[in-house]
Amino acid sequence: MDHIDLQKQSQELEQTLQKQLELVKKDSDVYIKVAGAALVAGIMGYGLVKLTGKSAPVKSRKKKKHKKKKKKQKGYSFWGTIRERLFWLIMDFLKKRFLTYMATRMQESGEKSK
Question: What is the CA angle 103-107-111, rounded to 5?
């Protein structure tokens, strides 16, 4: 009896495996088609932008680079450092409060489990 049951189970497993493989093949065809369409659309979009896009003349490119170098640098700010120090002070305070809260919670849960 056991041998016959095992053969039936193996046949059922083979059938389900075949069905799953067929489904994977069908799904992969759909994914390949969608990926191909996305790739073609991307290449066409890139080509269209390259064809219609006008590149700036060499002189204007040099001027743009030159202007970027002359950006005004930010100076020292007293309030900026105070704000930063206050932020880290508050973070440290909250971290200590959180750790004490978690320690008490863990102690309470340890007492309850006993």
Answer: 170
Q: Which of 22, 19, 24, 23 is nearest to 11 (CA)?
A: 19
Q: Which amino acid type is present at position 27?
A: D
The C-alpha atoms of residue 92 and residue 112 are separated, in whole angstroms, by 30
Q: What angle do CA 34, 38, 39 make, to 5 degrees?
A: 115
Q: Answer yes or no: is pLDDT of 73 > 80.
A: no
With 0.85 as the threshold, say if the pTM is over it. no
**Rounded distance between C-alpha atoms, residue 27 and residue 48, angstroms:** 32
**Buried b / exposed e along 46-64 (16+ C-beta atoms within 10 A):** eeeeeeeeeeeeeeeeeee
As given in the structure block, the two tokens for residue 76 are 């020292």
Residues in the chain, overall count: 114
> Are the beta carbons of 91 and 99 closer than 8 angstroms?
no
pLDDT tens sequence across 78-104: 777 888 899 999 999 999 999 999 999
